[in-house]
Amino acid sequence: WQEKSLQMEWCLECHRHPESYVRPREEVFNMEYQPPADQVALGSKLVKQYKIQSLTSCSTCHR
Residue 7 region, left (φ>0) first, then alpha (ψ -120 to 50), else beta? Predict the structure, then answer.
């Protein structure tokens, strides 16, 4: 059973909009983590803090 499809579109959604999915580093391995109501605001802050780039070229993952 899978929570989400592991097809490329699922991956690209996160690469295109990381602010919707990024979480604090200390929560990366917390499988019970629930994103806050203001996830996009928190995510935007974390994207800047962690210097996350929205990379979608094929070579980003397929090397």
Answer: beta
Ordered by start, the domain boundaries in the chain are 1-25+36-58
φ/ψ region of 51 (left if φ > 0, alpha if ψ in -120 to 50, else beta) reads left
Contact criterion met (CB below 8 Å) for 21 and 14: yes
Q: Which of 63, 56, 44 is nearest to 9 (CA)?
A: 56
Hey, what amino acid is at 17?
A: H
* Length of the chain (residues): 63
Contact predicate 19/43, CB 8 Å? yes
The pLDDT tens digits for 10-46 are: 889 999 999 999 999 999 999 999 999 999 999 999 9
Quick one: how far is CA 1 from the chain centroid? Answer: 21
